[in-house]
Amino acid sequence: xxxxxxxALGEIxxxxxxxxxxxxxxxxxxxxxxSSIAAWEHYPPGDVFDPSSGAQWFYHxxxxxxxxxxxxxxxxxxxxxxVDGPIHHLAAVGVDAHGRMLRLFxxxxxxxxxxxxxxxxxxxxxxxxDVHMPRPSYLVNRWLTTxxxxxxxxxxxxxxxxxxxxxxxxxxxxxxxxxxxxxxVTSEMVFEVxxxxxxxxxxxxxxG
Length: 208
Prior knowledge:
This protein is α+β, with helices and mostly antiparallel strands and 208 residues long.
């Protein structure tokens, strides 16, 4: 298992390095199909869905200036019964403007409006997040897939912490806890990211 994790971490770095060689990042590739970027819109347009695995994802960014560190995040789902079936949110991957991973986190149901599954049901779907599609970039899809493989145990812990946060949260009278907008992020794991060297600005993604 340790060897598998090390291989997966190496594959994440490999995807990033291949993109960087061309002056690209997971974000510039995600935005390949659009000429303008607007906060909270889904990218790529129409999301990415793999009919073989049921994995689905989209990226959206924050309004310019709202967050000086996190540019936006990839929301990752599984539709275990196909494109017309229920959709279940697994976790999100927050990145900076260079596409470098800042955090993994879970959200309350109202944030994405998915079909709710409890922690163990959601965790059982983690191996299904396996995206082999050409758009917007196979390297982006492989990068996301491998994150879920490398950090599967940590994501499982985040999902269990999500349910505990919901159990502990006291919502206003008459408000269901999963619809309480006072509770958005339910758990997170933060990564330490090294400062970007001067000259890497060309790979930045601009929101607005």
